[in-house]
Amino acid sequence: MGLIEAMRKGSGSDSKIVYDYDSSGEQPWVTTSLDFLVNWGRANSLWPMPFGTACCAIEFMASAASHYDLARFGMERMSFSPRQSDVLICAGRVPFKLAPVLRRIYQQMHQPKWVISMGACASSGGMFDSYAVVQGIDTIIPVDVYVPGCPPRPEGLIYGIMMLQKKIREERMERGELREELAPDPSSQLYIPPSRIDELSEPFGNSVHQTRSAP
Amino acid sequence: MSEHLTQDHAAPAFAIVYPGQPGDAPATPKQVPHKGGAVNPSVAALRAKFGPVIGRHDVVWNETTVFVQRDKVAEVCAWLQSDPAQSYEYLSDVTAVEYRDAVRPIEVVWHLRSIKFRRFLRLKTELPKAGKTPLEVPSVWGVWKGADWLERECYDMFGIKFTGHPDLRRILMWEQYKEGFPLRKDFPMRGRFSRSEQLKNALSANPEARYSMEELSIADAFEDLPHDMRKRIGGGERTGE
Question: Which of A34, A96, A118, B23 is 20 to 30 Å from the Cα of B207, by its Cα?
C-alpha cells in the first residue's frame, strides 16, 4: 500500500489538491483506497470524444494545441470513436437533425462516461432560439459540466475539465446508481418528461422579441 | 538563380486574357448607379425571341432583373443556356422571396451567369399567394444539373414545387419534418410544435436511413454498407415522407 499512501500525500500535478476523505473510519479502508486508486486513474486519463459542431470547436482545438495543452490532463488522445472514449465534449449548437446522432454516440460510449456541454449553444440553445436548434443538449443526454461562454476561452474549458476531474475523484463505489444509465422512454425516446423539456426550452432574454410573423 | 527569375518574369507560365480587353484586366466598376444602369443586352434578345412571355425588367446596381411568365421558365432558361449569343453556362442560385405583405406575390429567383461574356442576369417569376394557384414552377434541372440541390433547398424552405425535378424532397430539414416550410412568413420563429414535440419527432428518426440510393451511389459507398442496411435502403426505405 506504499503506492496508495504516496498518492494520498500527493505527488506531481496533484499535490495541491485536497481530497475530501472520510478518515473517521466509518468507511471500510479497502473500498475507500480502491475508490481512490480507481478515481485517480479515471480522472487523469480522460479520453475525450470531441463532438464539435460550431465555433466552440475552434476554441476546443486551441485548448488541445500546444499553448494550452490538454495532454496535461491525460487527454492527448482524441478519441474519434465513441467506444474508446470517456468524456463527450459537445462543442457547439446541435440542430434537431443532429439530435439522434448525438444520442446514439452517447449510447455507444461505455460506462463510465461523462459529458461536458461546452458553450452557450450546447448548454441552452444560446442565441439560436429557432425552429431548428435543440435548446440545450441536456434535453437529449445527461450532462455533467456546463461551460458557459460564447465561445468559452480555453481557460474556461480547462476549468470545466478540472471540475469534472474533481467530480470523478469524489465518486464512491458504494453509490452504484451514479453509473446506472437513464433509459429513454421507449415510445417518445425522451428521458425526461416533456413538460420538463418545455420548461427548459422556454424563451429567455432577447429571444422573447423574436415572435414576429405575417400579418 | 537570377537568370531563372528574369526569364520567368519575361514569360509568365500563363496569362489570363479577357474577351474584348486583350491583356488588360477589367477594373472593378466605380460609381455604379443605384437605378437605371446599362441594361443587359440579353433582355432585348429575350424580348425578340419570346415576346409577351417576358415581363418588365429592372436594373439595380447594374444588375438586370427580368420577369418571366411562370410556365415558360424552363424554355427561356434552355434558350439562354444553349444560344451561342447568350451562353449562360452557369446557374449560381435558385431561391425565392416572400414579402411581408398579404397581396404581393412570392417570387422565385434564378441567378444566371455567362462566363463567356462576363454577364449576370437575374430571372424572376411571380407566384400569387391569394387564390388557389399551386406554388409550382418548371424545374430547370434539364438545363443545368446543378439545379438539383438548389431546387430541393427552395422546396424545403418555401414549399415551392419544381415540376420535372427527379428527386424533390427535403434537403436541410429531415424528411419527416411536419411543421411546414420555415422561411415562409407565416411560419413562427420557433416552429409550430412545442419543444418536447419537436425533440420527440427528431429523436424518432433513424440517423442511418437518411440517404437515397442516388447519394450513396455518388459516394460509391453502397457496397461498403452493412448487409442489413443495404437491404433496407435497397428496398427503398427512407425515414418516411
Answer: A118
In this structure, the strands spanning B63-68 and B54-60 are antiparallel
Give the per-residue pLDDT at A182. Answer: 77
ipTM: 0.75
**B105 in contact with chain A, both atoms CB, cutoff 8 A:** no
In a domain, B115, yes or no: yes
Q: Give the start-to-end residue ranges of the domains of chain A.
A: 14-43, 47-171
B203 and B118 inside one domain: no
| CB-closest option in B189, B195, B201 to A201 | B195
| CATH class of the region A47-171 | alpha beta
For residue B200, the chain A residues in CB contact (below 8 A) are: 188-190, 194
Task: List all residues 6 or more positions away from A127 whose beta carbon is below 8 Å from its beta carbon.
Answer: A120, A121, A150, A206, A207
**Can you tell me the distance from the alpha carbon of A192 to that of B64, in angstroms, rounded to the nearest whole number?**
55
Is residue A209 less than 8 Å (CB to CB) from chain B?
A: no
Q: Burial-class residue B45 by CB neighbours within 10 Å (0-12, 13-18, 19+).
A: middle
For the whole model, what pTM was predicted?
0.76
| Sign of the C-alpha dihedral computed for residues B169, B172, B177 and B182 taken in this order | negative
User: Rounded to an integer, what distance in angstroms lies between the CA atom of residue B231 and that of residue B49?
Assistant: 51
Give me the mean pLDDT over the B114-138 stretch: 88
Q: Higher-confidence residue: B222 or A161?
A: A161
Q: Is A99 on the interface with B (CB under 8 A)?
A: yes
Contact B65, B57 (CB under 8 A): yes
Range of the domain at B129: 34-172
